[in-house]
Amino acid sequence: MRVPLWGACLAASLIAARVFALETIIINQGYDNPTKIAVVPFETLDSTDAGIADVVSFDLARSGQFDPLPRENMLSFPARIEDVFFRDWRILGIEYVVVGRLRSQPNGDFSVAYHLLDVFNERELTTRRIDAQPPQLRDVAHSIADDVYEHITGIPGAFSTKILYVLAKNAGTSYATYELKLADSDGARARTLFESDEPLLSSSWAPDGRRVAYVSFEGRRPAIIIQDIVTGARSRVAEYRGLNSAPVFSPDGNRLALVLSRDGNAEIYVKDLLTDELRRITRYPSAIDTEPSWTADGTGLIFTSDRGGRPQIYRIDLTNSMVERLTFEGDYNARARLLPDGKNLVYVHRRKGTYHIAWQNLERDEGIRVLTATPLDESPSIAPNGTMLIYATQVGGRGILAVVSIDGRVKYRLPSAEGDVREPAWSPYMDAFSPGT
CA 202, CA 379: separation in Å to the nearest integer? Predict the structure, then answer.
């Protein structure tokens, strides 16, 4: 039986209310026995709380695997290893403690030093110092959370990553607007990359984390755009007659899989971004082939096709054009994405007339596992460490983003008060301190 992660819920709601103007993340469900951790407020010379510890706690709480101790329950506030009394933390049931210090430098930058301590073994697991500019303190916090997460779980953290999504305001009216937004992985610090009076769709990331591709209907016809998120420079890479949709970068970033109807039927193509060469991949005139995504080695594509009568997931080998059907359970499976291990697949699955996100192992015949329970779930996108996925859903008739772990045990929502949120895309790993990100 699963039980709610009440400690993490409380910590997340308190932190979200007071740090960096975050919106409240609603943690619906977590692990039964989350790891007890205390992230002590970082020491500063002027006694000003920069909020670093709160963001670290918030990140760990939303992973569902950690239960951070609220600061009001802490018995002391050490900043150095020699100030830590392990017995006090054991009394509180804490397994790990993070302590640290924030110091300003003569040039106006900050230096942040921290230690991760194993309470029961009374030892230091890691220590690190990060120098950063004042606007980067939140990036520092995400980086610390990544480090802590990896040292305890053995899995790289993904808190320093970003998300893309489309914000639709007044959709369906004559004054509708659409914004392509870039935000931290927790939805904070959102900024607009591009705004249009016409729909924006199908955003995706290049593996370098610097470029994004999307579909824009500016000019009243669909075109595929690649935009540099640092400079804002935009280029049109596909504006053929008919449909131009579903762009996805190859793992090396040099090719773009896309869907075109330039030859009369919706088919999948690959465009070489270095040479502009366009290669048609699928040839099935009586079916719609769409929603491509790449295999990890770049030698194949996963895609949706109704060539069997209903939408199902297929894989095509780009070296020999051999096609294999991957899904058989249910009459609707679409928008598939492979996990980084290449062995597991997530996709939109219709069950009893309702659309959910489902998981399937491609090597073992285990059937499918439905991960979500909200209605109209769509557009899954996987975190680069393969532990979580973000998707679009509806709550109270409004589009929001939600996150679920790959095993279905952790769930939380990212509400938005601005409008309908849709089409999320989780970034690859990227430099947390890069300009413009």
Answer: 9
Q: Half-sphere exposure of 53 toward its Cβ, with a 13 Å CA cutoff?
A: 27
Work out the number of other CB atoms within 10 angstroms of the CB of residue 51: 18
Task: List 219's β-bridge partners, or say none.
Answer: none
What is the pLDDT, as a whole number, of residue 2? Answer: 31
Among all chains, which residue has been given the structure tokens 């970003």? Answer: 162
Alpha-carbon gap, residue 98 to 57, rounded angstroms:
10
Q: How far apart are CA 160 and CA 141, in angstroms?
A: 9
pLDDT in tens, 320-334: 999 999 999 989 999
Show the tokens assigned to 111: 């230096």
In angstroms, rounded to a whole number, what is the distance separating the alpha carbons of residues 347 and 435? 34
Burial 118-157 (b: 16+ CB within 10 A, else e): ebeeeeeeeeeebebeeebbbbbbbbbbbbbbeebeeebb
CA distances for 165 relative to 58, 224, 426, angstroms: 22, 16, 9
Residues 6 or more apart whose Cβ sits within 8 Å of residue 364: none
Distance in angstroms between the alpha carbons of the first and the last residue of the chain:
41
User: In this structure, what are the phi and psi dihedrals at residue 7, rounded to the nearest 5 degrees?
Assistant: -60, -45
367 vs 259, more confident: 259
Residue closest to 208 by CA, chosen among 433, 437, 430: 430
Tell me what pLDDT residue 29 has.
58
The total number of residues shown for the chain amounts to 437
How many angstroms separate the CA atoms of 92 and 67, rounded? 12
pTM to 2 decimal places: 0.88
**Pairs from 297-300 (Cβ < 8 Å, separation ≥ 24):** 297/251, 297/342, 298/250, 298/251, 298/252, 298/255
Q: Where does the pLDDT of residue 30 fall: very low under 50, low under 70, confident under 90, or very high at 90 and above?
A: low
- Cα–Cα nearest to 368, from 403, 411, 336: 336
Q: Which domains does the chain have, with CATH numbers?
A: 6-153 (3.40.50.10070), 162-426 (2.120.10.30)
Catalogue the E-assigned strands of 69-122: 96-104, 110-118
Could you write out the DSSP letters of every residue in 196-257? Answer: ESS-EEEEEE-TTSSEEEEEE-GGGS-EEEEEETTT--EEEEE--SS-EEEEEE-TTSSEEE
